[in-house]
Specification:
Elements: H1 15-18, H2 30-38, H3 44-63, E1 68-73, H4 79-101, H5 106-118, H6 125-129, H7 132-136, E2 139-144, E3 156-162
Parallel strand pairs: 1-3, 2-3
Amino acid sequence: RFVFCLEPGDGYLGGEFFYFDDARRYLLGEEEAEILIDSSLIPIGLRRALTYFILTCIDHCYILNEDTCNFLIHPSVRIKHHALVAGKVACLLKSFKRDLGNNSSFLGYWLQDCYSQFGDFCEPIEFYLNRVGSVIDKISVSTVNSESPIDDDYTGFNVLVGGSSLGRGVT
């Protein structure tokens, strides 16, 4: 018997990056997880997570000069939950885009909230506020599960919602 361990590729973050002492502040609580699946509401944790992803995409696009950043959401193993959550994310992105077009402060509020709560960004908040419109239009939402066509090209800025299939070529 032989075991061959693959070396991590460039840009691999590893478990230490995601599972650290303060990781709990990034996770949905039990009540929010129920709202995500069993309600038509969009939980605050999902709003914050999507906002954090948008800020991260701005960093990737304008600071790191990278054109790919993926946000994986694993709500449950049920395919109907994947479609439900993908719909909520798409709806939230649409409301953010509408907000930008109407010069409303809704998206700005969430960006500032996320920026101040997590505070690990490269530039001042104004940098992100001035660039959010160009990045938010590039974000796509897809489901990745056993009923999805196999796709091994996840370039661009993607929100991928799914189950166990998220670990097959995406992570």
